[in-house]
Every structure is written in structure tokens, then in C-alpha cells.
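Tutorial, part two.
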Amino acid sequence: MVIVGYVFLLIGALFMFLGVLGLVRMPDVFNRIQAGTKATTLGFVSIVIGLFFFHPEWWSKLLVIGAFVLMTNPLGSHNLARAAHRRGEKMVLSGVDRLSEKEAK
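Running the prediction step on this input gives:
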């Protein structure tokens, strides 16, 4: 069971590293928010699962912490992206901006 815990911790650390790499490499604020949020959420959940294999008696605490992060991380990134859009941040890649189309009407 300890080996499975180490595997989940390694997977979580890998996703956390990829999230940081995405923050550095992405061209604009919207891509950075997306890369950071998805990778760190998956990495954190993997780390929590890995911790469960080391300390099964902590299952209730780990469940509460995991649920809190799963609920708040996407909401926080959504609010950051919305604030950046309202501030006037532009996307580097061309795309359709449906939010500004709705605001224009």
C-alpha cells in the first residue's frame, strides 16, 4: 500500500510541476489561469489520495480538504478570468469572445 501512496504522490507532484510550467509558458492570462487551475487541482487530488494510503485514519479530514479544493479552485479561476476580461485583457490567440458579444447587446 505504501508503494501505491508513493505513486499517487509522484503523480500529484508531476501535475503540480506541469501546472507551474504552464504558468510560465502560456502566452496570456486566460491560458495561464486554465493551465494552473486544471493541473494543480488534479495534482492536489492525487496528493490527497496518496496521503490516504499513508494515513488511512485521516480519511475524514482528507475528504473535507479535497472537497473544499475541488469546489473553490474552479470558482476562483472563473472569477479571476472574469475580472481579467472586464479589465480588458486581450487573448493572444484569435478566438470568438462570446462574453463581449453579450455585453454589447
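The chain has one domain: 2-104. In part three we will examine how such features are distributed along the chain.
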